[in-house]
Amino acid sequence: MERPSLEFNLPDTHGEGKLYVVDSLNNLNKLNVCPAESQHSLDQEDNTGGAGESMAGSNAGNQRLFFVTFVLTLTVSLALVSFVIFLIFQTRNEVDQISSRLLSEKKNIEELKKLNNIILKHLNQSRIKE
């Protein structure tokens, strides 16, 4: 197999033009060295070359999205915990009120029992006298 000469007379270009020409020559050299696999690998390099910056931007976007999601999750969790604590205090207040009512009702029932006993004694005494 004859390989074509890679010696070219490069025109006198400036800046990015030289880099583009050198890059093109490197790609040609890769094609000549391994023509069967080179097109696939060059396509991958071209795809990942431009995607490096977009991957970095995508990665930063993913991190930002993760951070926003994390902050929202923490906020919702804090709100739920605050609501549960509020419900616990409300329930405790209601239980305290019910307990105080039960104690006062218990006292009232005991007083009624005493009055009932006094009335029964009085009735028993009045029957005996009759």
UniProtKB/TrEMBL annotation:
One Pfam family recorded for the sequence: DUF4577
InterPro entries on file: DUF4577 (IPR028099)
UniProt keyword list: Membrane, Transmembrane, Transmembrane helix
TM ranges: 65-89
Positions of region (Disordered): 36-55
Claim: Membrane is one of the keywords in the record: yes
Record's protein name: LSME1 protein
Organism in which the protein naturally occurs: Melospiza melodia (Song sparrow)
